[in-house]
């Protein structure tokens, strides 16, 4: 790797092999902490190495190598979690998915339906898009012509309100 070490940085006193070992250990720690499926950690770290090698020219401060690498690894772990979430739903046969949704306690569903009915139409639509249809916040924002931040804030506040009322 062509990373120049700065003498003000403790990493500068590590040999290149020691630096790479430390970098690998740090990335693995971050990835294992973030991943839902821990056995994917090696693959995510390997993908992070590839990304680091491809993007090494974008690292502005060479003494920030380890934090930069950890951020890349964390982002890739989040991406892997997101991919797994979609994979789980897509892997279920349609009949199984439908039956798993029907297995919810009918009394709880009636209460939840009543709570949704009490909400304003925009908030109800946001929650249905997010949790029933599984749309992403950006997709909801586009559909309702709202800023993404507004969508996220309304969903968060609505979830908290429902939780309090539901309990």
TrEMBL record:
Q: Where is the RNA polymerase sigma-70 region domain?
A: 21-85
Superkingdom classification of source: Bacteria
RNA polymerase sigma factor 70 region 4 type domain: residues covered:
111-162
Is Plastid set as a keyword in this record?
no
> Per UniProt, which keywords does this protein have?
Sigma factor, Transcription, Transcription regulation
Q: Does the keyword Methyltransferase apply?
A: no
InterPro entries linked: RNA_pol_sigma-70-like, RNA_pol_sigma-70_dom, RNA_pol_sigma70_r2, RNA_pol_sigma70_r4_t2, RNA_pol_sigma_r2, RNA_pol_sigma_r3/r4-like, WH-like_DNA-bd_sf
* Family membership noted in the UniProt record: Belongs to the sigma-70 factor family. ECF subfamily.
State the name under which the record lists this protein: RNA polymerase sigma factor
Q: From which organism does this entry originate?
A: Cohnella soli
């Amino acid at each position: 790797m062509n990373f120049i070490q700065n003498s003000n940085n403790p990493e500068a006193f590590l040999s290149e092999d020691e630096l790479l070992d430390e970098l690998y250990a740090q990335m693995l720690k971050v990835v294992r902490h973030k991943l839902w499926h821990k056995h994917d950690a090696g693959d995510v770290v390997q993908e992070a190495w590839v990304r680091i090698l491809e993007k090494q020219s974008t690292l502005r401060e060479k003494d920030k190598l380890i934090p930069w690498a950890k951020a890349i690894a964390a982002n890739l772990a989040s991406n892997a979690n997101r991919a797994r979430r979609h994979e789980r739903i897509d892997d279920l046969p349609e009949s199984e998915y439908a039956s798993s949704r029907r297995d919810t306690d009918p009394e709880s569903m009636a209460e939840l339906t009543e709570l949704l009915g009490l909400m304003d139409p925009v908030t109800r639509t946001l929650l249905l898009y997010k949790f029933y249809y599984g749309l992403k916040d950006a997709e909801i924002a586009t559909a309702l012509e709202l800023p993404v931040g507004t969508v996220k804030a309304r969903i968060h506040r609505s979830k908290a309100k429902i939780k309090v009322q539901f309990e």
